Automatic annotation (TrEMBL):
GO MF term list: chorismate mutase activity; transferase activity
Every Chorismate mutase domain range: 265-356
UniProt-listed Enzyme Commission number(s): 5.4.99.5
Naturally occurring in which organism (per UniProt): Chryseobacterium lacus
GO terms (BP aspect): chorismate metabolic process
InterPro entries named among the record's database cross-references: Aldolase_TIM (IPR013785), Chorismate_II_sf (IPR036263), Class-I_DAHP_synthase (IPR052899), CM_dom_sf (IPR036979), CM_II_prokaryot (IPR002701), DAHP1/KDSA (IPR006218)
UniProtKB keywords: Transferase
Protein name per its UniProtKB record: chorismate mutase
Pfam families: CM_2 (PF01817), DAHP_synth_1 (PF00793)
Length: 360
């Protein structure tokens, strides 16, 4: 069966939005049971408890998860509190252990999604099962890799599929840990509307303060669920402490989340989607302009060191000619593009002037 033909009936058995919550990493049986118990006590409907058993780390010699013993703690959480359970797998060994422990939901992490060999190994190990498998977007903004991972799983006969949008890595310093790049996720949704998409605001934000706004923004544009890292004592967490919240904070966040009415007009839904995309693009524009001005600072320092004039007429001519060409290529107003580049150039000149006038 083709990926686009999957109906994903599994998703209808969960409340909307589907909430998956629990600690980034399983640390101890006590930590798992306390977190789960407090989640249950809030009274908020949270169907799935998550915990990382194996943790892929950027550098060696760090905490890389407790391993198989953590699966027993997940089983105990299910027995005592009734949550379904979920964890990440990165190879066939993980898959076998998770299947043996009868964990309900598996997800493939961003670092694994980028590796077709690893995804194929996981897909082959899952043949013959009816487990729910969620695939996080790859760390780099590559839609084809994301789709390819789903196709490998579908090709292995896995029918209960979903995806998790956790943002994309960037070397730029931004307010996000992983920039959302909403357009890539929405392109996926447009191609595969029957595949449920959850958002992972914990990994997008990298901190606690932006979790609600990112989660709500995702629900506004049609996402069906949210995965949030939740810990009984976030500040003492062994991994990703800054982005985890207590069960009580999680409950408050879930109660405030608003799910879009399925009967809402297509106009309003499209407007929300396009506004989200505009906000995302505006954010990228500002970040790029910030980088450009930092380069201007370096140029100003060079000019000062070599006693060169700030304004270089030949350079301005190159900029205006380039702007005119790009306006024609993109079928945009030549006057608008020239005005935009003039403003950027004027700001660059102002920055360089400040450096030239600095007596240091």
């Amino acid at each position: 069966m083709e990926l686009a033909e999957l109906k994903n009936e599994w998703f209808k058995t969960y409340p909307t939005p589907m909430i998956i919550a629990g600690p980034c990493s399983a640390e101890s049986e006590l930590q798992m049971l306390e977190t789960a118990g407090r989640m249950k006590e809030t009274g908020v409907e949270i169907p799935v408890f998550r915990a990382g058993i194996w943790k892929p780390r950027t550098k060696p010699n760090g905490f890389e998860g407790v391993g198989i013993i953590g699966l027993k703690w997940l089983q105990k959480v299910k027995e005592e509190f009734g949550f379904q359970t979920a964890t990440e797998v990165a190879n066939a060994h993980h898959v076998k252990a998770v299947l043996d422990a009868d964990i309900d939901i598996l997800w493939i992490g961003a670092r694994t999604t980028v590796n077709p060999f690893a995804v194929q190994e996981i897909a082959d190990a899952l043949k013959g099962t009816d487990k729910i498998v969620l695939v996080k977007n790859p760390v780099n903004p590559d839609l084809a890799l994301w789709i390819g991972a789903l196709e490998r799983l579908s090709g292995a006969g896995i029918r209960n599929l979903g995806v998790i949008h956790r943002g994309f890595s960037t070397y730029q310093k931004t307010k996000y840990r992983n920039v959302p790049n909403w357009q890539i996720a929405l392109d996926f949704k447009n191609q595969f509307p029957e595949i449920p998409m959850l958002v992972d605001p914990s990994h997008i934000c990298g901190n606690r303060t932006g979790l609600f706004s990112v989660a709500q923004e995702a629900l506004n544009i049609g996402y069906q669920g949210v995965m949030v890292e939740t810990h009984c004592n976030p500040d003492a967490a062994w991994s990703d402490a800054k982005q985890q919240v207590t069960p009580e904070v999680l409950a408050g966040m879930i109660e405030k989340l608003k799910v879009r009415d399925t009967e809402i007009s297509a106009f309003d839904e499209d407007m929300d989607r396009f506004r989200t995309l505009i906000s995302d693009i505006d954010f990228q524009l500002i970040e790029l302009l910030s980088q450009r001005m930092k380069v201007s600072e370096h140029i100003g320092s060079l000019k000062k060191a070599h006693n060169a004039a700030v304004f270089q007429p030949d350079r301005w001519k190159v900029i205006t000619e380039y702007a005119a060409r790009k306006a024609e290529e993109t079928q945009m107003s030549k006057e608008f593009i020239e005005k935009l580049f003039k403003s950027i150039h004027e700001q660059s000149v102002e920055i360089q002037n400040k450096i030239m006038n600095d007596k240091k």
